[in-house]
Amino acid sequence: MKQKANSQVYEDRRTAILEAAIEVFANLGYHKVTTADVSKVAGISQPYIYRFFETKEALFLEVIQLIYDRVYAAFEKIEGSPENLMSELIQAYEDLMKKYPNEILLQIQTWGIAEENIQKLVKESLVRLKLLVKGKFEKSGLSDPENLSKDFLARGILCNLAFALHSPELTYQRRV
């Protein structure tokens, strides 16, 4: 029983650190952030972070994984018909944007970070997302799922930029 309680405490603290890291990385950017910044927002000592993450990069990689996992989880639930699949995916992403605005800002930042491990994870995450969306389009019977999935991701990237720049004129208007 004690082992289970300790395990839960560990996971709760780890989650709190990740959530604090999302906020700090989104506001300051990867290169400006220190683990001291994250520990301050998380309400813990800086050395305590290293019990969970070996380096700032390791923490950032976990943050990236968490962000994309939330997108995958939202999209995996969708089983729309050919007529409404696209709008359901868009709505799911808009819901994520409202619930996790800092994660949208972080996604944009990750596209320009040169560190090899970060680039690799971002590329893998985007490819995995494209394959998930492509599979949804294939399953629904839509034609040209390869290009539809690429168009969907390109529109998502533009929506992220419009969100970050507070420029709604850059977003696509949905057709009713």
Automatic annotation (TrEMBL):
Q: Which UniProt keywords apply?
A: DNA-binding
Domain HTH tetR-type as annotated: residue spans:
11-71
Give the transmembrane ranges.
none
**Recorded GO MF terms:** DNA binding
Q: Which residues bind DNA?
A: 34-53
Answer yes or no on keyword DNA-binding: yes
Q: What is this protein called?
A: TetR/AcrR family transcriptional regulator
Q: Which organism is it from?
A: Leptospira sarikeiensis
